[in-house]
Amino acid sequence: MNFALKNGCQAVRISLYHGSNTSFEIRDMKIDRLQQASENACAIHLFVDGRYGAFSTNRIDRKELEKFILDGIDSTRFLAEDRARTLPDASLYYKEEGRDLQLYDPKFETVPPDDKVALAMQVCDEIAGKDTRLVSAESSYGDGDNFRYMIASNGFEGESSDSYFTLSGNAGIKGDGDARPSDYWYESSLYYDTLCKKGIGAKALARTLRKLGQKKIASARLPMLVDFTNSRRLLSPVIQALYGSAIQQKNSFLINKLNEKTLGDKMTLTDNPHLPKASGARLFDSEGVATRQMPVFEAGVLKTYYIDTYYANKMETARTVDSPSILIMPPGGKDLDGLIASLDKGILVTGFNGGNCSTTTGDFSYGIEGFLIENGKTVQPVNEMNITGNMLTLWQNLVEVGNDPYPGSNWRIPSLLFDAVDFSGL
Asked: In angstroms, rounded to a whole number, what is the distance separating the alpha carbons of residues 328 and 299?
């Protein structure tokens, strides 16, 4: 940082990163693939005479870095001026010292490789040979750790570290004709001891078997129940429309909606970045700005955008944070089975197959699969159907929220029940 400042930069931000990961993949009770990787990187952000350049390297030798920085400064001077490119206001930086969100498992480096393989084998064993129609049984174990250090010339210095562990299983079976239904299940945790290690393969197989006999049904406008493994797919376009880049480029269906009621009464969403031992938790964002708990929607009223320093300067508005941390939707009173039981007729969506949503208009079209619900029970697996509509209308028709968010996710969104959704089938 000091070398860059002495050689022509007016401001500098530097980030150091180290990460490692391991994975074991099993196919039909044999190791199919194993991988181990580690990475070091240095990212340098240079602010030179009203111009901005970002450069990265994994060669962290002092002599090489000095030449790398000098070359970066020379290159940055060739760029057009962009006065919106600045470091954040120093008053926004995270300044507390010693706070620990407990995101790193101190046992991370002590887990024996044989134990990792055994866990993946156990998941695969819960699938292999358990049904005569089985055509594939797959499982995987993965883990990783990350360390980041960042310093900025106007007063920020901070570091963070985290770890993760995952286990997953996938089953494929022979269905009717050429159909080959498949499904999966996974578990994840920041800590090895709290990782769920049993029942994953059995659950993947059960989720696959329930797909036998999938078919289209007649087109209709029906209530749509989306299970918690897929609910974030419908929230994602809403969050993308809140980014400063989308707002500034007028590519958002939520532009100029701050403090207005835009979605339904059931839509309440909070960003809570400081949950200990939780995926997505953080004390500061990618520029060092302090994170804080904040409402995103309150009973359908939009309360914030996600605006980084660049777009705050471009739009001459207040900076918030650059992206979501942990999104939490308050749970309702029913689990998925309870929501199914509440419907006379509807469709439970358990998967999305392609499709898209326009961030500008909110119009969407998605392929779906799932189950027809009649008289409070699932009666027929369905697939090759589409849903179409508009995100604003869809979320205004959110009528009930489940109580089953996945605790290992950084988006804790439970099962969601929407009214009057257009399904296209036969």
From this structure: 14
Alpha helices in 168-243 (DSSP H): 200-209, 231-240
- DSSP per-residue codes, 114-170: HHHHHHHHHHHHTTTTS-TTEEEEEEEEEEEEEEEEEEETTTEEEEEEEEEEEEEEE
Q: How far apart are the first and last CA of the chain?
A: 64
| Cα separation, 148 vs 305, whole angstroms | 26
Q: Mind listing the pLDDT tens digit for each residue in 84-103?
A: 999 999 999 999 877 899 99
Among residues 97, 379, 376, 355, the alpha carbon closest in space to that of 214 is found at 379
Which two three-digit tokens encode residue 246?
């989308």
pTM, two decimal places: 0.93
Distance CA 68, CA 236 (A): 38
On the CB side of 44, how many CA atoms lie within 13 Å of its CA? 26
Q: Which DSSP state fits 212?
A: T
Asked if 373 contacts 348 with a C-beta cutoff of 8 angstroms, the reply is yes
